[in-house]
Amino acid sequence: MIPKIVVDKEKMNEVIISNVFITVIAGVLVFIVSQWITYWIIKPHQVYLEAAGTLSCEMLQVTAKYTNFQLDETDVLRIRRANAEYLSAVWNSGFPLRAKRRESGFEVAQNINMITVLSRLDDINFDKVLELKKAMDNIQKSDPHIKIRYDK
């Protein structure tokens, strides 16, 4: 004969309700954490990569002009706009390493501005060429996501 198990229905309902409650709360917490990660880490990084790509595209389109000191006002405005978008994205990107990225982003922005100024000068000399090359090298070193020339 099988022994009869007595189950208290109130206790059983409490256990079921507490398990459902815990499951719902755990699901809500997982959703909140995933949204936080998406909003504060993933999306800003995607915006940063898009801005770096836009800046690279603008710089690569006018490589021949700025390396031959022939940038015109339209090119300078396009580059400065892309540079501003890049700097804004750098400021808001990458939660864990934000300070380092901001520092390198400001260095990139300064060097881009230096290139736009140097590439419009009328008095071209060897020192200006070296400064331009140094600015280009600094950009490549500061941010691996930016490509502004066709070598390497």
**Please, how many helices?**
5
Q: Which structural category do the helix and sheet elements fall into?
A: mainly alpha
Count of beta strands: 0
**Helix fraction bin:** over 70%
Query: What is the general shape?
Result: rod-shaped
Major beta-sheet overview: none
Q: Could you report the average pLDDT, rounded to the nearest whole number?
A: 86
Specify Rg, calculated over alpha carbons. 28 Å
Low-confidence stretches: none
Order of helices and strands: HHHHH
Strand content: under 5%
Distance between the termini: 84 Å
What do these coordinates show?
Helix 1 packs antiparallel against helix 3 (73-92), helix 3 (73-92) runs antiparallel to helix 4 and helix 4 runs antiparallel to helix 5 (126-142). Helices cover 76% and strands 0% of the residues. The chain starts with 8 loop residues before the first helix and ends in a 10-residue tail after the last helix. The protein is rod-shaped. The mean pLDDT is 86. The chain has 152 residues and is mainly alpha-helical.
